[in-house]
Design a protein that fits this description.
By secondary structure, this protein is an alpha/beta fold. Helix content is about 45%, strand content about 15%. The longest helix has 17 residues, at about 225-240.
């Protein structure tokens, strides 16, 4: 259903409020550059600092602004299962094409709890569900065996894997049906994950280099490994620089350098350090982006 480069889109703010005009321009930019789907309100979009009203407003705004040009995936995860169900039902009602749900953070559920959490959400909607494993943020990692169990539920269609563990990705691909899709959650691992059977990437870097990310992922899918490797090498310094500080601090700094958004984050996130901005200027130029 989804493939190639899916952008984990930032949420621009202006004087503390959602900047709808800048967000619409970001969406148009992404689509014009070949991004295959838009993820709204993922971790990169700062949903942890949004009110429920804002979260729902931005999902609906994204669906309307995209206007069916590409699929929209809504981040609707929570460590409260009832809340995750409510948000996912809202995303379905708003017209999203799928929902991405992070593993419950802080609670640290055991595998049985993870299974029951995702099962409850999936059974509350007909919307396709994508699991999201990012242990660096949540404190737990969903086991490949649990993923394989969840893959038997009709509308759980894939996983965004950001464990940084290629063995884990290989195990998931081995255990799950061919129809179950794996997406890289780390830009720097996109090429190797696609090489072992991944479908694409949910990308932070695509915020600033959407065309190059689309080109790299499509090159892999078409078997053009030389092009894919060359793009990976060119973009690799940018991939790493975008995580010099907590995401999305660097990527919002990069977009501000490019004049695309205001340099605003919501507390407790803060503006990038001067040395981070200098490094971003350097790697953006090396990646072929005019700053």
């Amino acid at each position: 259903m989804f493939q190639d480069s899916i952008v984990a889109l930032v949420t621009p703010f202006k004087q503390g409020e959602f900047d709808a005009e800048a967000y619409r321009k970001l969406i148009d930019f992404q689509i014009s550059q070949g991004t295959s789907a838009i993820l709204t309100c993922g971790c990169t979009g700062e949903p942890a600092t949004m009110t429920h009203q804002e979260h729902c407003q931005i999902i609906r705004f994204t669906v309307e602004a995209v206007n069916r040009r590409v699929p929209v995936i809504a981040g609707t995860g929570s460590n409260n299962t009832k809340e995750a169900i409510t948000l996912t039902q809202w995303a379905e009602k708003a017209g999203a094409d799928a929902a991405l749900l992070i593993t419950p953070y802080y609670n640290k559920p055991v595998p049985a709890g993870l299974y029951q959490h995702y099962k409850a959400v999936a059974e509350s909607v007909s919307l396709p569900i994508i699991l999201y494993n990012v242990p660096s943020r949540t404190g737990i990692s969903i086991l490949p065996e649990t993923v394989a169990e969840l893959a038997q539920i009709k509308n759980i269609i894939g996983i965004k894997e950001a464990s940084g563990n290629l063995d884990q990705v290989s195990r998931i691909i081995t255990l799950c049906p061919d129809s179950f899709e794996v997406y890289s959650g780390d830009d720097s691992l996109t090429l190797p994950i696609m090489a072992i059977g991944g479908r694409g990437v949910v990308s932070v870097a695509a915020n600033v280099v959407p065309g190059a990310m689309a080109q790299m992922t499509k090159a892999v899918r078409n078997g053009d490994w030389l092009t894919a490797r060359n793009l990976h090498r060119r973009l690799f310094p940018l991939f790493k620089a975008l995580f010099l500080e907590t995401n999305p601090i660097p990527v919002k700094g990069a977009l501000a350098l490019l004049g695309m958004i205001e340099p605003e984050l919501r507390l407790p996130l803060t503006s990038p350090q001067p040395q981070t901005l200098e490094k971003l200027r350097q790697v953006l130029k090396e990646a072929g982006v005019k700053v």
